[in-house]
Design goal:
The chain is of the alpha+beta class and about 230 residues long. It is built from eight helices and six strands; from the N terminus they run αββββββααααααα. A three-stranded antiparallel beta sheet has the order 1-4-5, with helices on both faces. A three-stranded antiparallel beta sheet has the order 2-3-6.
Length: about 230
């Protein structure tokens, strides 16, 4: 069934989501088989569920369906025991099977759309250098453009390699927080280039950060293709 506008509004109020993935229908077939494990003198009951769910992705801004998914998957549960009846009892009931299936289908479909991280931890580096302290002051005051230009100036003019590494790293973090991911990666690559010994910055692996930004850029392009962002 299609979600009504009222149902979508309720979900938005509860979750604050911009997009809602709804499991509309869940056709399924269930097969049960019995087998013997002779080496252990045990009976195995296998419950196999073939699922063909239909899911819709709604844009809460206009309550319209933006994407539809029809998936096929198979879930299996097994119960073992020396006694046939006990083996049956170790299987989940049908409602539990379908609940598990619904969660699995939502996860599979969500990954096809895009997994979203809700929280990431970042930090800026400060030193006792006057220029670095001034950039930090601008940052704390919310004057991000001024902080940007100060770190850029330090990178271009400082004779201390450490300050150039720190300023380029800070620029990458600042640009990432503004969702300017491609520019952030450019500055992070500069940080890596002038850090030939690959020194870890405050327990933060530059290579790992580069990989993370690259993945975020890929996800951003995927969102753009899917019409979520312009």
């Amino acid at each position: 069934r299609k979600l009504t506008t009222a149902q979508i509004d309720t979900l938005v109020q509860q979750s604050g989501s911009s997009w809602i993935l709804s499991l509309e229908t869940l056709p399924y077939q269930i097969y049960m088989t019995e087998s013997q494990i002779k080496d252990f003198n045990m009976t195995c009951i296998t419950l196999e569920t073939i699922l063909r769910p239909y899911l819709c992705l709604y844009d809460t801004r206009d309550s319209q369906i933006k994407k539809e998914y029809i998936l096929t998957d198979t879930l299996r549960w097994e119960g073992y025991d020396n006694d046939l009846q006990n083996a049956f009892l170790k299987l989940p009931d049908i409602s539990t099977c379908l609940t598990d299936a619904a969660f699995l289908m939502g996860e599979v479909c969500g990954k096809k759309w895009l997994p979203v991280k809700t929280e990431e931890t970042r930090f800026f580096i400060s030193t006792n250098d006057p220029a670095m302290r001034e950039a930090e002051y601008f940052l704390k005051q919310g004057q991000f453009e001024e902080a940007y230009y100060m770190w850029e100036h330090i990178f271009e003019s400082s004779k201390r390699e450490q300050h150039r590494i720190y300023s380029s790293f800070n620029l990458a973090v600042l640009l990432e927080t503004q969702h300017r991911l491609e520019e952030a990666l450019v500055w992070l690559n500069k940080c890596d280039e002038i850090n030939p010994e690959k020194v870890v910055i405050r327990d933060f692996d530059i290579q790992q950060y580069q990989n993370l930004l690259t993945e975020r850029i890929r996800q951003k392009e995927l969102l753009r293709q899917q019409g979520v962002i312009e």
